[in-house]
Amino acid sequence: MQLDTPLAASNAADLVVPRLLLSTRAWGMIRAYVAAADKSEVSGFAYVQQLDNDPSTFYVGASDDVFVVPQEVTIGSAEVSGNTFALALDKAMLAGRDDDLRIQWHSHPNDSYFSPTDLRNIEAFGAAGMEWFISFVTNRRNEVHARFDVFRPFRIGAEMDVIVYDFVPDDMVTRAQEDVANMVTILTPKKTAWPGAQQRPGLVVTHGK
Fold first, then answer.
1. In which residue ranges of the chain is CATH 3.40.140.10 found?
2. What average pLDDT does this structure show over 157-161?
3. Which fold has domain 12-167?
4. Among 77, 104, 136, 186, which has the minimal tally of Cβ within 10 Å of its Cβ?
5. How far apart are CA 114 and CA 120, in angstroms?
6. Which residues of 62-97 are buried (b: 16+ CB within 10 A; e: fewer)?
């Protein structure tokens, strides 16, 4: 698995490639920030969760899960300082979501890749005590590049597959499940021969009464 920087791995060949799912609204929010910062780079953070039935899949489900904090950038850099991360952590703690603060994203004006500065930023998250973290870089052409880094109990990193997905909000899922459970009756159809089936041997049509 090709990484931007060598990382120790005891069994890299068997490593499951992690996936990052971005809802269309979350991805749209990142794109809006990048477009708004048309004269510079911009960096931000996002709340991420793991799928219950697939711990290797992470997702950002809403536009409100993506945010920026006060920062100083240039036309070609958006270095995340300790103060910047502290501001993001304060915001997350006020929202009761400090455990979900696991993504740092930023833009490049041209190619989407992890620069030496970006790689130093990643190591800083480990030094700050994070067990794992996701880093995400994009550009004005909407190209993306992401990586998943584990800092404890061992050091390993892997590039991530990034998928933009049209999530259905949880409240809509709950309402649909309740309505179907309360209002939808499932009938078992009876198999009957359709009169025209004599002209098409083997055809059996099913319908309910």
1. 12-167
2. 90
3. Cytidine Deaminase; domain 2 (3.40.140)
4. 186
5. 10
6. ebebbbbbebebeeebbbbeeebbebbeebbeeeee
